[in-house]
Model the fold of this input.
Amino acid sequence: MIKFVQCVRRKPGLSKQEFREEWGRYGEQVKEIAGASKAARYTMSTSLQVDQNLDIMQSRGTKAPYDGMVEIWWEQGAGVVAFMQTSVGNEMIDGLRHSQEKLMDLPNCTFFFASEEA
Done:
């Protein structure tokens, strides 16, 4: 199983509420790409505003939680590579990039492909 992961921090000046509203619209784009690329599964997550996150951060010396996370799974990498090389795939990904620029603090986000292991 291959997956694409996005760990997202919101753009400076964007409130948590504004982020969540935009995040919902961004999620629609992710859903469309997942369907068009024949993904096996996708998830969208947002961090909880709970004391436990602050406790973990302080006790372990970590950074603040990401504001959101996206995971998209494919059975094989060849399918997603083929999708990314089509004109439809390129158009959809360009639209997603535009949304990312409006929503995300890109230098402080992390995007990567990974293999899922049991």
Summary: Residues 6 and 28 are 15 Å apart (CA to CA). The first strand starts at residue 2 and ends at 8.
